[in-house]
Amino acid sequence: MKTDVLIIGAGGAGLVAALNAKKSGAEVLVITKEYPTRSQTCMAQGGINAALGNAGEDSVEAHVQNTLKSAHGLANEEAVRLMCSEAPNAVEWLDSIGVCFSRTKDAKIAQRTLGGASASRACYAQDYTGLKILHTLYDRCLSEGIKILSERYLVELLKDDENAIAGATVLNIKSGEIEKYDSSAVILATGGYSRIYDKNSTNSSASTGDGIAVASRAGAKMVDMEFVQFHPTALKSSSILISESARGEGGYLLNSKGERFTNELAPRDEVSRAINAEILKGEDIFLDIRHLGEEFIEEGLPQERKLAKLYENVDPVHDLIPIRPVAHYTMGGIEVDDSSSTNIQGLFAAGECANHRVHGANRLGGNSLLEIVVFGKQAGKAAAEYALGKETLEPSAHSNFKLTLEVHEHKLDFYEVREHIGDLFYKNVGIVRKKSELQNALDEIQDVKSKLHLMGISDKSKVYNTNLIEFLEFQNMLDICEEVVSSALKRDVSCGAHFMAE
Amino acid sequence: MKISVKREEKFVEYEVDIADTTLLEVLKKIKTTQDNTLTFSSGCRSSVCGSCSMRVNDREVLACSYKVQDGDRVEPLKNVPVIRDLVVDMSKAYAFNAKAKAWQNTVSKGVAVTQNNEKINEVQSDCILCGSCYSACPVYAVNEEFLGPFSLTRVWKYVSDVREEDEKSKIDTIQSNGVWDCTLCNECTLVCPQNISSKSDIEKLRSKSVMAGYSDPSFANSFGGGFGFDGSPTF
């Protein structure tokens, strides 16, 4: 099976890329390891930034400056300018295809303030912003007849004799068969790697950095991998996200004594460090939104209320919400140029797996949904243009991937190791880092990698073997972990989310 | 605490030492510590991705938002092929969205959406496509061509949206195996984790259909087929 543009990942970035590649005249195929509406995008709650000025004065320039400030000098100003100036168009487009944004009294898209923003800039749909955007994009793809294949897990990128991309090999989870898809261009839109922190992450269990690991094995460059954003307010026991909008709308952070101890609306890295410092002093930390009132909470933060009740047995209308910071978004990713192209010919990337250098050392809330629309579009167009301009050669790529369920002995339980690594990374490669602890984490990762042959799977079924998929994800995460901690060791000076204690 | 999980044709009992937690946490615990072969889908843990829909004690739930109880009997969704253990093949249910043309036909330009406009389909656009409604639907159980609850809710989402200019063609698409096949039993409403009532969305689509000149085919038939497809009498 041969297509012009093969897109791996059906979250926001993948679907926007698909729509734009199709619009540019390319034949498109989308592949996802889940179903198209189950990706991480659906979990984005807070909003999508665009300087519309619907809720007070704002400007593209202010958006640019806020983004650059939060990025601590690591962003590419040109890319940031592109993203921020395209933002109003991006939101207008989403509105035009039917996204149900919340509205103001004068029939404009409602906007609210998130951390690090000088204005109310985040367009939202209650606290279901990502969900509503993702589902509308999916509907749009259906209307365009875009083919999406679900439950297929990327294992390898294929290249031709000239080292250009020629397709991908995937494992069909349902059948257990290996499938090969030939294509002139591939767009990776596979999401981030926050799950290297295992249960200390707000993310879906699918955010295992597969695309980045596979691309890296094919020779793509990873950049700024040490920058991991810790979201200040996740539920304490379950790491479920409580949106930043809860603070944006006026929520307080309190310690056990009931005292406020930080500016709740500072950028996420600062707030997370402030909370972490309190926790290290022995304090329990709470989010307090009681003063916002029941009506307001029901209207603007319905998910938050439901999740706090379910997971912490507290009702935010009457009770304090116990929270702690956990891994939420990974700024690092596959290096791309100003047309979303990687260093491998024909390989493009967009969304959290890519690093367009717009977030730098710390992403602003509301910029990730924006990024997937702006750079998803750029990647889709660029990949289509590349694919259509390419001479069609007989596919000469062959797969090196061999799936075997028997190679590994089963002496070490990888689920235990996965949890151990997650906790180790949270402690040693987390909110505040020390050289000695980073080195210790690197040693452990290398030790675990050397013992991979002692780990394996006990499920030998061909059909829907999630034990196997989780083991493959685990191996990808080990590669990512090694890169994250190695990059962190190379950066002695604190910068944004990478904070060195010494 | 003991729970039993339907695997193949029989229930397998598991004992776990955690309580006051979600079913998903318990299933994960079993998979990672007792039985690596136990198979289920999950994702976000916060009820928005729709992956972990299943049935507990004959009721559709999301495993991530259901607090597990001693003695719970866990099964896969109904009316859908089971791939393995609690994992079902959702592709057919998903395909109904395309069949029902559940999208905005025209890309809107400069249409102002008021707060009232937005409230009309706010709840419908919360749908997570978990498929609980198809599992609970007695019509879909006997008519596998029935467009079904979530896709009809999705059609209503677009039909009711002020940005949709081509309401008529949306209504045309849902006449056969669509709005008139529903028995309005309300089972879909009772199991929806997002508090959506497909039943009432279908009723609203029926009103729109009548306004567009369609009528209930069973009603027409009860008059001996004396009315044409457009509702006008035939002789």
What's the shape of chain A? globular
Alpha carbon gyration radius of chain A: 22 Å
Separation, N- and C-terminal Cα atoms of chain B: 69 Å
The coarse overall form of chain B would be: elongated
User: Strand percentage of chain B, roughly?
Assistant: 5-15%
Strand order within the widest beta sheet of chain B: 2-1-5-3-4
Compute the separation of the termini of chain A in Å.
55 Å
**Mean pLDDT figure of chain A:** 95
Helix content of chain A: 25-40%
Question: Secondary-structure element order of chain B, as H and E?
Answer: EEHEEEEEHHHHHHHHH
Low-confidence stretches of chain A: none
- Please, what is the average pLDDT of chain B? 93
How many individual helices of chain B? 10
What's the number of extended β-strand segments of chain B? 7
The rounded Rg of chain B comes to: 21 Å
Structural class of chain A: alpha/beta
- Number of discrete helical segments of chain A: 13
What's the count of strands of chain A?
A: 17
Could you spell the SSE succession of chain A in H and E letters? EHEEHHEEHEEEEHEEHEHEHHEEEEHHHH
Class based on secondary structure composition and strand pairing of chain B: alpha+beta
